Structure formats: structure tokens, C-alpha cells
Amino acid sequence: MNEAQLSLLQLNNIIKKTVNENFNSKYWVVAEISDIRENYSGHCYLELIQKDENNNNIVAKARANIWANTYRILKPYFETSTKTQLSSGIKILILVTIEFHELYGFSLTIYDIEPSFTIGDIELKKAKIIEQLVKDGIFEMNKELEFPIVPQRVAVISSDTAAGYEDFCKQLNNNRNNFKFNIVLFQAFMQGEQAESSIVGALDKINNKVQQFDVVAIIRGGGGKSDLSCFDNYQIASNICQFPIPVLSGIGHQRDNSIVDMVSNENLKTPTAVADFIIEKTEEFYNSILFMNDNIMQYATNMLDNKNNELYNLIQKLKNEVLSKNFNQKEKFFNLSNNLTKNVYNVIYYNNTKYNTLRSKIKVILSSEIKSNKTKLVYENEKLLNSINQYIEKNKSNINTMERLVNQNNIKTVLGKGFSITKLNNKTLKNKSEAISDQLIETELYDGIIKSQIL
Amino acid sequence: MSKKELTYKSAYLELEKIVSQIENNEIDVDELAVKVKRAAELLTFCKSKLTESELEISKVINKISENEE
């Protein structure tokens, strides 16, 4: 027995030797990280586990480490490839050597990590979660909610220190229409182990006064590292799905959508994009009521215009009717007056003709009368002339006698005074030129006549 | 009018109704002024609610509901 006794150190050294001899190469091992820490010198210490796929019981466990010089290279490589932080809960495929230290015991030293395994595992997990949500019948529930007509009251799930939250508020408050938004922050861890419980907790708080909000915005971003693993979480996704008001996601990512993005009512890239979306919806509402109001005013104006036109047409029609009636009357009157004139003319013409005939007749009568009278008159005249002539003839000799008597008496007186009258051929000779030679002339003196011959 | 509290949605629906009534010639010229006034009221309500603080909103709502009574 004594010979067989070993000190613990001896035993551990034997194990160490055996391990070194039997596990002298490197092995690719699949494990889940259950704990991970960095120390001050840059070394990384992990606890790896394996869970039973059916009941999630831990069936294997091992410590592991990544020495600082390896960790410096591996960590960024892994995280850029997978967009996932090297953190507890993820499955990794690692290249390890097996170490046994007499003082610290069994551990694995990690030399390499295969990111594509983790990516695949995450996708697989996501697929399983989605499958579960679909099976639960809730996958589309939040998407199917009617978006509020104006998303003015916004519950925000974010960490208060995140630059994304600040961007969100700034963007929302500085909108061009001066819309006022009511923003209430519900703080939560947006990454890491506590993310699940704190996000679900925030959703619960909002749900308690859901009447005060129109939408929930889950936002994150502005931070450096992008660990989206918590957004591929069944609990969070399930809560969002069944949330009574629309959830907007703006968790900033480049890679495929997370499950939170998939189940949200609206999935936007960044917090700023969420703010823009809310503003846009509000503007849509605002513009549509402005548009409707414009329409109403336009219709009202048109209607008034139409009524005015109708009225105007009616007046015009009335006017026309009155005018046409008036015109008819006028025409009638005109015709009447025309007829009257015509009749008058006819009458006048008729009368004129009659008058003319009458006048002609009268003329004829008159002229015949005149003729007859004229004849009579001429006859009378002649008769009168004859009787005057007879009377003159009758008295002529008397007058001659008397005239001679008168003349003789006168001449005797003159002759008595010594004057004489010379007569040629019984005519008184008054001019010398009448005296012709050898003619016989008689010279009458007071007491007789002397006959003499011109020398 | 109903004494139901005015909301964005009810304002929107009411405006929509007025538009369709006018489009379908269901409003005669005598009703027109009332409808146009109501549309302006609804617009004012929405505008105020969108841009004013809560206190000012309640003033506007009170004013409009007074007018309705």
C-alpha cells in the first residue's frame, strides 16, 4: 500500500504526462460559450458547455482560454465575420489543444475559431425561432395591426445613453411642419445577456399604459459594436408579435434582418429612419386632410359658380323670353301698323282715283259749261257790239254834222281874224313839202274861197 | 353633431364623408355653408392637435365641442 501511495502532485503529473502523450495534436471542437472574461493582461478565459438538445441540461463543461496574442487577432476576425460578439450563449467551432496543469487542472487552449459555423448556427437558431413563432400563430400579428392614423405618441425602447436615441429625438422634434411628438423613453439594455429580460420588461411597462401610446419604437445604433444576437430572441420576438400597438424597429444593422425586424410592424434601418417614418406618416395624414379641405373648398366654389351660372342662365332665358314676346308684340304691332298704312294708302289711292275721276268729270262738265257760256257770251258780245255799232252808225252822221257845225263855228272866228286855210284836194295843207307844182289849191278866207295854182 | 370626442380618425372620416357627399351632389347649396364651416373646424382641430402642446389641444377641443352644443 505504501509503495502505491502517490502525492497529489505526483498523480497530477502522471495525468499531465498521460494527457500530453495521448492528446498531442489539435482538435476541432464544437461548444457553447457559457461565460467569457478578459483579464488585465489581455488573456481571455471562457467556460464552455454542451447542452442536451432535448432538455437543455448541461451535459459537458470545460474551461478554456485564448492567450492574449491569439485573442487580439481572433476576436476582431470572429466578430466582423459573424456580426456577433464573442459572448455567452453562442456556439463556436474552435481548434484546441488539451492541457492539464497540476495546479489549475483541465483546460482547453484555443488557437482558432471558425466563424462560418457560428453564422450557420445563428441562422439555424433563427429559423427555429421563426418556425416556432409561425407555429404559435403570432408571427404576422404585429404586422397586421392597423397603423395609427397619426403616430404622435411614441414609446421608445432604447438605452438612454445611446447616440441613436438622441438622433431619434432630434430628428423627430425638428420636423418641418412643427408637429409635436410625445416621446417617452423606456430604458433597456440593447445588447448582452440582460437584453432579453430588460427589453421584455420595457414592453410590459408600455403595455400597462398602452392607451397613452400610438406606437413603440425599438431603437439602437450609433454604438460601435454591433451585436444583434439579442434581436434573434424568441421571448422578445414573441412579445413584439403580440404587442397591441405597432412596433417599429430601428436597430441599425447591415446584415440580414433580425427576427425583431421581421416581426415588427415596420422595419427600418436606423433610429433616424424610424423618426422619418413617423414624420412621414403624420405628414401623409396632414396632407390628406389639407387636400380634402381644399377639395371641399373647391367643390363649394364650383357649386356656387354652377348655381350662379344656372341663375344667370335662368335670368338670360327669362330675358330672352320677354324679349322674344316683346319682339313678337312688336312684330305684330309692326304688321298691324303696316296693314293700317297699306289700308290707308289703299283708301287714299281709291279715293284719289275717285277724286281724279270726279275731277275729270267736273272738268269736262265745267269746260262744256264754259264753252257753252263762252259761245253765249261771244254771241251776246257780238250782239252788244252790233247794237253798239248800229247805235254808233246811227248817230255817226249826227255827230259828223254836229262836229262840222262845231268846227265851222270855230274856224269862222279864226278866219275872221285874218287867218286862212289852204286845202289841197279838200285836205288841209300843213307842210310845204306836200305842195306839188301845178296843183290846184283852195284858200279859205273869212268870207269865201280863192282858187289858185301852185307855180 | 355627436358629442363624441373628436379624434384624428373621426375628423378624417368626417372630412371624407363631406367630400363624398359633395362629390355625389348630396349637399344642396343651403347646407353647403354649414359643411364648409365644419370642414374648416375639423382642419383647425387637426392642425392644432398636431402642432400644439397638450394644454392648447384641450382648449381647442373644448372650443369645438362648445360649438357643437
Taken as a percent bin, the fraction of beta residues of chain A is: 15-25%
Question: H/E element string of chain B?
Answer: HHH
**N-end to C-end Cα span of chain B:** 8 Å
Sheet with the most strands, sense and barrel status of chain B:
none
Q: Ranges of chain A with pLDDT <50 over ≥5 residues?
A: none
For the termini of chain A, the CA-CA separation is: 258 Å
Description:
The complex is a heterodimer of chains A (455) and B (69). With 455 residues, chain A is an alpha/beta fold. Helix content of chain A is 53%, strand content 20%. In chain A, helix 5 packs parallel to helix 9 and helix 6 runs parallel beside helix 7. Chain B has three helices and no strands. Chain B has helices at residues 8-23, 29-51, 54-68. Chain B is elongated, with a radius of gyration of 13 Å. The mean pLDDT of chain B is 77. Classes of the chains: A alpha/beta (455), B mainly alpha (69).
Short description, anyone?
The complex is a heterodimer of chains A (455) and B (69). Chain A has helices at 8-22, 68-82, 115-136, 141-144, 163-173, 195-208, 234-241, 259-263, 271-416; strands at residues 27-38, 44-51, 58-66, 91-101, 105-113, 153-158, 182-187, 215-219, 247-250, 266-268, 421-424, 427-428, 440-445, 448-453.
Write the layout of secondary structure elements.
The complex is a heterodimer of chains A (455) and B (69).
Chain A: H1 8-22, E1 27-38, E2 44-51, E3 58-66, H2 68-82, E4 91-101, E5 105-113, H3 115-136, H4 141-144, E6 153-158, H5 163-173, E7 182-187, H6 195-208, E8 215-219, H7 234-241, E9 247-250, H8 259-263, E10 266-268, H9 271-416, E11 421-424, E12 427-428, E13 440-445, E14 448-453
Parallel strand pairs in A: 3-5, 6-7, 6-8, 8-9, 9-10
Antiparallel strand pairs in A: 1-2, 1-4, 2-3, 4-5, 11-12, 11-13, 13-14
Chain B: H1 8-23, H2 29-51, H3 54-68
Helix pairs in contact in B: 1-2, 2-3
